[in-house]
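A quick word before the example. In earlier lectures we treated sequence and structure as two separate objects. From today on, think of them as two lines of the same record. Here is Aminotransferase written that way.
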Amino acid sequence: MSIIAERLQRVTPSQTVAITQKARELRAAGKDIISLSAGEPDFDTPDFVKEAAIRAIQAGETKYTDVAGTAPLRKAVAEWLNRDFGLDYTADEICVSTGGKQVIYNVMAATLNAGDEVIIPAPAWVSYPDIVKLADGEPVLVQTAPENGFRMTAEQLRAAITPKTKWLMLNSPSNPTGAVYREEHLRALTDVLLEHPHVWVLTDDMYAKLMYGSEAAQTVVQVEPRLRERTVTMNGVSKAYAMTGWRIGVSAAPSAFTKQLVKLQGQSTSNTCSIAQAAALAAVTGPQDFIAEMVSVYKERRDVVVGMLNDAPGLSCQMPEGAFYAFPSVAGVLGKTTPKGVVLDTDEAFVTALLDETGVAAVHGSAFLTPGYFRVSYATSTELLREACTRIQSFCRSLV
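And the structure line, produced from the sequence above:
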């Protein structure tokens, strides 16, 4: 009899974490490595946020808080969601968790029974299907097409819904493609959801502030308020405020549902770090102008990276509309051989050889449920991005 639970054997370790760790180990061993695998800003947390955390420590705010988060933070998050995203939530509808990943896990663990289905448009973040499996659910993957901008269509959603469907997971802007569901795209999906009152929506808006162009991000409840009573909106400070290590994610949902999330969290982690909560409070209530400056830098990097990737023989890359990822196709290099004799028969073989032969770390598209692509994070300096893309171009030119 195995000591390991069957549910854990259904899941695989995070591929993004694994590749990032391998890049760190190679760099520590003295190798010249440029990592484009990590999904976190290279910007530092703003000083006013760090200073708020220091003040909290000095003031002795180091005790347990309410499981759902401090009252000031939950109130501030509700006001932030209203101010910046047009969402009308109250403090008792907010739960503060240890990163966005815990929000997703809480929601799935609190709601799924064996055999319940969760629709996930692919490409998708690597953790979505595994969290569903851990909660005894069945991920239903819907493969989106590049000609639709990697967005799920209403027809695809309607075809995927069954009597067992409990959730639709939606991520915009998308990790890994940078695709954005604008109002017209969301309206098409929400019209379908209104036809199926048994389907709830978990919308992952973690990158919502990282948008290129003048149009602000849209989210489900903002577009269709009639879905409010069966939508969980997830957001946080990790990406927009350069606070990945602070581990603060938030959920907004009807109060009766939020109480169930709080009950579950109370028997797992309980409250998130009190100091991180003080920092998050400062982030959502303090100056916001630095975000636009950060997005401007990301846009410049995006243009450099996409242009250079499209100049690499055999690669093709769409222009991301948000987040800080590019998702180029490797269709034009599959079947070719590297200078070291490696046959590139899969996207994973491509990124493995790219790391071994050029020192550039990226993540294969299969990890994001879409073979034939790879993900590049451009959340690093323009100088390193240019060097990495130059190496990628040289690598592609060397293939035979």
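Notice the following. The two ends are 50 Å apart (CA to CA). We will return to this example when we discuss secondary structure assignment.
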